[in-house]
Amino acid sequence: MSLAGSFAAMRILITGSNGLLGQKLVAALRTNDAFELVATSRGGDRSPDPLGDRYRPLDITVQAEVDAVFDAVKPDAVIHTAAMTNVDACELDPATCHIQNVTATQHLVNASKRHASHFIHLSTDFIFDGQAGPYREEDEPAPLSIYGHSKLESERVVMEAGLERWAIARTIIVYGVAPGLSRSNVVLWAKSALEKGDPIRVVDDQWRMPTLAEDLADGCIRIAARGATGIFHLCGPDGMSILELVMRVGKFFKLDTSRVTPVKSDTLGQPAKRPPRTGFYIDKARSELGYAPRGFEGGLAVVAAQLEP
Fold first, then answer.
1. In angstroms, how far apart are the furthest CA atoms of the chain?
2. All domains of the chain, ordered by start, with CATH?
3. pTM for this predicted structure
4. Is 132 in a helix, a strand, or coil?
5. pLDDT of residue 2
């Protein structure tokens, strides 16, 4: 995507730029002349190749900090990836979850409204109860967890704010490789656990459609570049149980899976309930955005290439 002639570059502000999706957005945008990148995250820039003046530290839970950055940057579009996503941590600390996922979104929406910025909000399959997946964009949400409720509430903040332009990009199990992450993801966890050869217990009663971080970043950038509005489901094209996911990781990387034991979700004692079967229909994103995510093994090939020394 490039702009010819005298068109001004689109200025895109990213929240959560130190996270997995944030780092993939930075990688895709930093060398693209069609976009002017402003990356924000709490604390310092953790990019492997520092962004310099294109990075601004930002605590999105403080309205005054948000306003100061927006007034300085005046973004054309905002891609809001920052969130508290540890489902069990949210269940155990609902107040912090609400501040990080709902209050912070309200602060960003307030600033976006003042600057007429196109606001693109990341959300999750956990707004659904998992009784009837895969889901379409217009299906009725029914979250089971504090995390799911917080993301649904933040969606409503976006939809009801009276923004000139907004979009919501819902996704599922994002995986990939990025340096300095505070949390791993299921693919890297599975690969590491299988390499160690330790016995592992994996649920066989949760069904998902995992998403390569590069593909999700591409979908978000397509929303921004097209000025697209409304809700879009962005995930990988392949559905599988978590058990099958681990087995496919093992097969791809030629690892022994004989010490994997299937278990039911209710045996793990996790604080938060998980939806049993989610998944998304992605035909809207395919047709309106040109979204074309890689199959699971194609995504694992991207991961493998990035893990090579």
1. 61
2. 10-178+212-236+280-294 (3.40.50.720)
3. 0.96
4. coil
5. 45
